[in-house]
Amino acid sequence: MISKWKHIIPNYSRNYSLTASYRAMTQGCLLQDISYYTCIEIVGEKNWLEAALREHCNPKKTFAESMYTKGQREGTVMFFKKNGYPQFPIGYVNFFWKLSETNIKTIWIWVHPAFYIEFLNEIISSFEFKQNNTGQDRTDISHNLIDLYTNNAGCEMRILKYTLNRFRLSGPTALTVLKETLHVPSLTELDLDSESCPMTEEQNSSLNDEKLDTSSDPRFLPARRTRTKISLSPETLRFVQLTSDLNRSAIWDAQIRQIVSRSCMSNHTINEIQLMSDDSYFSKDTVAKIPILLIQKPAVTLSGLDSRIDIIIPYRWAGIIWIALTKQSLLVGGLQETKLVVFESLGTYVPDINDPDTSVSMIKALERKNMLINKYFSHSPYEKVNFIKFGILSPFFCDWENLTKGWSDTQDFYVLRHIKLLKLLRTEIKIVEQNARSKSTIQETEFDFRDFDEYQNCLVQVALSLDKGRPNAFAIICMSTHEDLRRFEINKNYEGPVEKCHTDRDEKSRKIYKKHLKEMEQLSRHRVKRKKTLRDKVLPEKFDMIHDVRNRAKLSERNKIISDREKENRKVNLPESTEVRNSCDKEVMGYVTMGDYSFLHGKGIGIGYVALPSLLEIIRKKSNIVLVRNTDELQYRFARLEVVDLDRRYN
Questions:
Q1: Rounded Cα gap, residues 333 and 20, in angstroms
Q2: What is the C-alpha separation between 192 and 391, in angstroms, rounded?
Q3: For residue 144, what pLDDT is reported?
Q4: Please, what is the Cα angle at 355 between 351 and 360, to 5 degrees?
Q5: pTM of the model
Q6: What is the 3-state secondary structure (H, E, C) of 450-496?
Q7: CA pair distance 228, 75, nearest whole angstrom
Q8: Where is this region: Disordered (predicted)?
Q9: Alpha carbon distance 400, 381 (integer Å)
Q10: Quick one: which H or E segment has residue 39?
Q11: Which neighbouring-strand residues pair with 608?
Q12: CB neighbours of 573 closer than 8 A, spacing ≥ 6?
């Protein structure tokens, strides 16, 4: 468990093994608690809601698409500042429309805590909301009327922060786990043992609303630990769909949520009732009914890696249902498993992953940079890597500004999200790869480089595939030369070129600095001695007012010497990055943000961003082979580059 975003969140599974986590996602079931997401409910007139939310989206990907407004599917969009597209993104949000036949619509927007405040301020400003505390009950946490906002257009917004819990089940056995744990009627009647997995129209019509949106209290069911088995092949499992009537849940009603939460009996009370009753499990009419909402994302790949079902429940029932789910011998994961799913499926559209042009990503990058720098300087001089000789000026962060400046003469950058242009880039690179493999020329698209003239300062997200080695975070993506490609074609075992060892002009200064170590150690001993002297003594009321001016001046002088020496040391060992594109023997195209060995692909893969002009350059060269080099290596590795699949990124 770690403390993050003002929450205590699981960081990784109890067995610490990524292999076990991957096996659970592809062969079993992975359970995660994502209740740290905040649900924001907005109610208002349909056209007004859609128009107001459209100002915060890509015009080609909005909240108002028909596949989402019907309330049968959860959507994910990049949320921008008002009229800020294509720049000024805030982050990805998940949203779900309530099934409604009237003109008054309700939408739930699930926001990641990393950018929750920024999102909320933008919504309040855009909708012109004002807080409405009239007639509220401050003791009613479940209803949470304290966070009620209204505007002149008749819209209402509620912050359902302590009202709902959300659990995520990933993997091919997620449906079976829910069926055996919660006994939801629609899942019970869904025959997972047959080959005809999708429910028929007759089955859907035979299930009424009262049965579809509730689950029985799992404490009244026989307590047994079981290991859920896959009853279907992955190919068949892809087509299993939950009935859309599951979205007609009573959990949308605030009063019902309040009543259900207050009626939750304690375990002690249930134990006493069971001791006095002959039937320890009671009848169906006696067992409490829990309103739930199931949100499914079917698998896209045959591995079932990206298949998941989210269950949303009233907050007081969260612990009860969590314990019931864990009895199914599934694996409980945390943030590490979320990143693993993103990495293996290349699905970077989730709110947990932020593009480098978002303010959240910039703040996170700065924090990570400072942490890694402090860790670097905590080692002895003999243990530190001399990144200057490796030609790496930004070993602990991705210098997007200087990268963009080197390719477009401007430091302002943003990620390209123009769907049509991204499709053109992806298709053209695939044609380049096919031509290179078949040694033929295929012309299927009308690719015009002039379409990208106004996007020269953009970054494009790419995926890398390496036959040898594995890329790490902050690894540089470089342009391959004709000589590199020629040698690679002749010898497929050719590992790649090697970066020359750079000259460290400050090496002498670093040796001079070592002479001052003895002086700094002496000053450190003085500080320790002073602390020990004052430890057992009663300090004066105004300790800062030291009467001995001479001693106070000496103390200030010593602290200044130590601070200056530390700044000088850091400047000599890690000089400021001013050039990226031509900092190495090969032209730098971009950086790897996520990289490692992939269980799904059986080799090293990476996810990163490259400058758009560099991507156009490799299209002109008719080759998608690039070079990747880690920050602590001189060896370049060949990698195949492709633009991230839009179906994975925007579905």
A1: 10
A2: 57
A3: 45
A4: 70
A5: 0.85
A6: HHHHHHCCEEEEEEEEECCCCCCCCCEEECCCHHHHHHHHHCCCCCC
A7: 29
A8: 193-218
A9: 29
A10: strand 38-45
A11: 462, 592
A12: 377, 384, 386, 510
Distance from C-alpha of 614 to C-alpha of 621, rounded to nearest angstrom: 11
Q: Can you read off the two tokens belonging to residue 562? A: 């130590």
CB 387, CB 505: distance < 8 Å: no
Q: How far apart are CA 253 and CA 255, in angstroms?
A: 6
Token pair recorded at residue 178: 């829910």
Q: Which two tokens stand for residue 322?
A: 């969590």
Which residue bears the tokens 């610490």? 16
Query: For residues 77 and 600, what is the distance between their CA atoms, to the nearest angstrom?
Result: 26
Tell me the backbone φ, ψ of residue 476, rounded to 5 degrees.
-95, 140
Tokens of 625: 């082979």
* Confidence (pLDDT) at 106: 94
List the one residue out of 27, 26, 24 whose CA is nearest residue 13.
24
Strand partners, 588: 478
Output the six-digit token pair for 424: 């053109």
φ/ψ of 74, rounded to 5, equals -85, 140
Alpha helices in 381-461 (DSSP H): 400-408, 419-438
Burial zone of 475 (CB within 10 Å; 0-12 exposed, 13-18 middle, 19+ buried):
buried
pLDDT of amino acid 244:
59
Taken as a whole, the chain contains a residue count of 651
pLDDT for residue 127: 93
Q: 549 Cβ partners below 8 Å, 6+ apart?
A: none
Give the residue carrying structure tokens 């292999």. 19
**145 DSSP assignment:** G
Q: Quick one: 351 exposed, middle or buried, by C-beta within 10 A (0-12, 13-18, 19+)?
A: buried
How many CB atoms neighbour CB 473 within 10 A? 20
Q: Which residues contact 48 (CB under 8 A, 6 or more apart)?
A: 153, 155
Helix (H, G, I), strand (E, B) or coil at 139: coil
Q: C-alpha angle with apex 125: 119 to 127, nearest 5 degrees?
A: 100
Q: How many CB atoms lie within 10 A of CB 507?
A: 12
What per-residue confidence (pLDDT) applies to 560? 73
Strand blocks (E) in 112-171: 130-131, 148-150, 156-160, 164-170
| E strand residue ranges, 527-616 | 588-598, 603-611
Burial class (CB in 10 A: 0-12, 13-18, 19+), 175: buried
- The C-alpha angle with vertex 322 and arms to 319 and 323, in degrees rounded to 5, equals 90
Taking CA atoms, 85 is separated from 57, 80, 591, 617, in Å, by: 7, 6, 24, 26
CA angle 192, 195, 197 (to 5 degrees): 50
- pLDDT at position 567 is 74
Structure tokens at 411: 């430091």
Q: Which H or E element spans position 121?
A: helix 116-127
Asked if residue 24 lies in contact with residue 330, where contact means CB atoms within 8 angstroms, the answer is yes
- State the first-to-last Cα distance of the chain, in angstroms, to the nearest integer: 31
Q: What does the alpha-carbon distance between residue 547 and residue 395 come to, in Å, rounded to a whole number? A: 47
Indicate the DSSP class of residue 568. Answer: H
Here the tokens at position 296 are: 């499914």
- Dihedral of the alpha carbons of 337, 341, 346, 350, in degrees to the nearest 10: -80
Helix orientation angle between 549-573 and 517-535, rounded to the nearest 10 degrees: 140
| pLDDT for 228 | 58
Q: Contact, 400 vs 434, CB < 8 A?
A: no
> Interior CA angle at 450 toward 446 and 453, to 5°?
140
Residue type for 544, please? D
Residues of the chain with pLDDT under 50: 135, 138-145, 190-212, 231, 234, 542-546, 649-651
